[in-house]
Structure formats: C-alpha cells, structure tokens
Amino acid sequence: MSNSSIPAAYSPPDRLLLGPGPSNAAPSVLQAMQQPLVGHLDPTFIDMMEEIKSMLRHVFQTENEMTLPVSATGSAGMEACFVNLLEPGDKVLIGVNGVFGTRMCDVAERCGATVTKVEAEWGTIIEPSAIAAALEGCKPKLVAIVHAETSTGALTPVEELSRLTHDAGALFLLDTVTSLGGCPVAVDDWHVDAVYSGSQKCLSCPPGLAPVSFSPRAMEVITGRKARVQSWYLDMNFLASYWGSERVYHHTAPISMNYALHEALRLVLEEGLEARWARHRKVHEALKVGLTKLGLSITSQKGHQLWQLNAIGVPDGADEAGVRTRLLSDYGIEVGPGLGPMKGKIWRVGLMGHNATVANVEHFLDALGQCLE
Ligand SMILES: Cc1ncc(COP(=O)(O)O)c(C=O)c1O
Q: Which of 223, 247, 269 is the last residue of a domain?
C-alpha cells in the first residue's frame, strides 16, 4: 500500500445510540479505557479481576463462585453456557419467541444436542403452561429461556419456568444480555443454573465482555462431563483456573475492556440496583406517554413490555427505513429496525444504562415527530 492510499485515522461521529445495543458508554467508562496497559498477570490487575467478580456477583444477585466475564461478546456467553453443559445426545428444551431463542437452538444443535423448541409468537412471552406441556413429552437436561428478547421487546417472567424446570430434574439457563442492569435479575432467588449477559447494553460499557455465572449444581455437571468441552477457549474448567486463585495462563485478558467493565460495574453499584431499575422504568413510562401523543404505541405483549428496549409500531404509510436514516443523518440518533417477522413493522428503541434519561426520551420524541411529519 502506498503512503497516499493509507486511510486517514478513523474519527467516529458523535451518535446517540438508542438502538438495541451497543448503547453509549458512560464517560468515565471510556476514560477508564485510556489508562496505561499493565500485564494481565500484574498483581494490581489480578486484584481488579477479583473486584470485577465480586461486583458481578452483586449485579447478578448471586453467591456463585463461578462468576466472571468471558473475553468476547454476549454470543460467546451463550456458547459458553451451552458447550459446557451439553454433550452430544443430550436433550434440551428452548423457548423461542425471537432472534435470540432461535440462536440458542442453533448453538445447542451444534453441540450435538437434540433440541425441542417451545415457540411463542414474536412479541409475546414464553408461558409456563407451554413449558409444562413440553416437559411432559421430553426429559431434557436443560431448559433455556431468553429473559429480555431484544428482537421484540418482551420480558418473560422466569420464576415459574425455573420451578417447573427443576421439578423435572433439569438445569435452568437464562439469557440476560439485555436485562442485566436495567431490570431485576435475581440469579439465586430464581434458582438459575447458568446465566450470561453482555457488557454493551444496560451496563453501559463497550461490547467485548460477556459476564457469566454458573451455580454449584451446573459446575458439578461441567466437572463430571464424559467428553471434553468442544470449545477450548470457552472451557469453564480452564477459565476457572485463570480467574481463580491458581491464575493459570489461559488467554490474554482484554486489559482495557476489563478496566471499562470495572468502572461500569462501579457505577451500577454507586447508583444502586433498585434505583437503576426504577430509572429504566421511569424513562419507559415517559416514552409511552410521548408515543401516545404521536399516535404511536409499543407492540410487545401488554404487561410484559421491556423498559430498556421498546418495540414501536411503524404507522401505516410511514417509511420505516427512511425515518431511521433521517434520525441518524439529521439528529445523530441511531434506532434499530425490526428483525425476521418484525422487519419493516417496528422500530427498536433502546433506553439502556447511561442513555436511560428523560432528556433522551424528549429529544428522541421530538426528532421522531419531525421525521414523521
Ligand atoms: C438477548 C440477546 N442475547 C444475545 C445477544 C448476543 O450478544 P452479542 O451481540 O454481544 O454477541 C444479544 C445481542 O444483541 C441479545 O440482545
């Protein structure tokens, strides 16, 4: 490449990220990433890793020893749960009411598992009666549910699903990529055996880390496996040694991302979980009031609408993609399109973490109103 063809340094525009994620990181989180690098086995970094684990336990509301951030995005958190818990021939029951339940099925099948899907219309929740009926027909090792379906804006209540799962002798796996930090997630009270999340949504950190947590029961299954975990990188037995007291080298932790997560979790703790959830609820309610004034509404099932991800119905005759393009070009606001059967029918508006403010809601409603005129 000649000198004249080397691109200029990338200078990203300033965007308000109100899509399904990533959402904007808090300023102090971005500052934390500019700190000097240390080695990943530096004693101060190791102390910081301990603090991350302990803050993650608080945010997940768990005492699980095996709680750590996997060095990759939320999908790797998903894979980490499935590849460690499943062996070829195992049976698994998966709730499918959007993109991420569908992705879980793909991941589980690649582990050699036999998947039974419990499907619900996109935008609605997975009902306990549907899981109960499916459990009668098969004896799965694992039941997996997406708590907050980012593709549709529905929040499935999980306590009853977890109870049914355990009564059937199975493990309960939960995706909390969009819920963690934005609405209650109580891993121990809900008896969740394996849970994963992502750094880039309500934790207000850049994408790149996937917090996971495994109950002692899930760890027994992992340590007692017949076959080795299919993935070397995501094998929790190795990650346990790296993140545990032995500090056995496994991979080079993404140093700056861990600085960022440490700061993001500190901010969550400083605000307090209850206050943070209340803030997400308040901005969601404010958005709904404003949408009604514009003649618009949220399409996900009433009573189960996510606070942090709002699926807004595109009105008849509106140019769905054109509105998104104008929001971005004229107002610097990013919102998400609908996926799969929701394509062209909804805008997905995230009000997550640092971005969950009434000021952002007002700015967005004002811009949307003008784009629709
Ligand atoms: C519910 C849910 N699960 C899993 C994922 C996958 O996470 P990532 O895109 O960080 O790999 C996402 C991402 O949007 C998500 O919303």
A: 269
Q: Which amino acid is at 35?
A: Q
User: 320: domain range?
Assistant: 16-22+272-372
Q: Which of these, 76, 62, 69, 46, lies nearest to 203 by C-alpha position?
A: 69
Judge if the beta carbon of residue 21 lies within 6 A of ligand 1.
yes
Q: pTM score > 0.85 for this model?
A: yes
State the DSSP code for 193: S
Question: How far is the CA of 299 from the CAs of 10, 271, 310, in angstroms?
Answer: 38, 30, 8
Candidates 70, 125, 175, 177: which one to mutate for ligand 1, based on the most atoms within 8 Å of Cβ? 177
Kindly report the number of other CB atoms within 10 A of residue 80's CB atom.
26
Q: Is residue 336 part of a domain?
A: yes
Looking at residues 347-357, what average pLDDT do you find?
98
> What is the whole-number distance in angstroms between the Cα of residue 37 and the centre of ligand 1?
28
**Rounded-to-integer distance, Cα 42 and Cα 344, Å:** 50
Measured CA to CA in angstroms, residue 143 lies from 104, 120, 159, 194, 228 at distances of 11, 15, 13, 10, 22
| Single residue among 269, 296, 328 that ends a domain in this structure | 269
* Atom of ligand 1 lying closest to residue 210 CA: 10
141 C-alpha to center of ligand 1: Å?
24
Give which of 273, 263, 198, 225 is closest to 111, Cα–Cα. 225
Q: What is residue 246's predicted lDDT score, i.e. its pLDDT?
A: 84
Residue 1: band (very low, low, confident or very high) from pLDDT cuts 50, 70, 90: confident
Q: How many domains does the chain have?
A: 2
- Determine if ligand 1 sits within 6 Å of the CB of residue 153: no
Mean pLDDT over each residue of the chain, to the nearest integer: 97
